[in-house]
Amino acid sequence: MPTFQSKRFVPTSASGTLPARYRASLQRHPFLLFGLPFIATMVAGSFFLTPATALRYEKHDRKVRQMTKDEELGIGKDRRRVDMREEYYKLAAKDLDDWEQKRVKRLPGEHDGIL
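That's the Cytochrome c oxidase assembly protein COX16, mitochondrial sequence above. Prediction below.
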């Protein structure tokens, strides 16, 4: 039974091509030919993607903005000034002693609280 040779078979037609030379030099200098281009791609991609992510967050900030207290309450510029004395006299003029308790109509299926 014949033994196999420890040398790899390299065809003569593939010895001078660019991929064959790259593979041979990659075994001698793996970081220089594989690791360094990979790290450079990651760093360059980070620099190129930073403006894109900034645009994304700026667009989001334009949509969602801080509201003032007046905007929250829905008060426009044509609002009436509130005078405490005027409001006091309006409440004092009302008859607060003459009132009647009325039961609120419940929704169908809702418990009405009567025992």
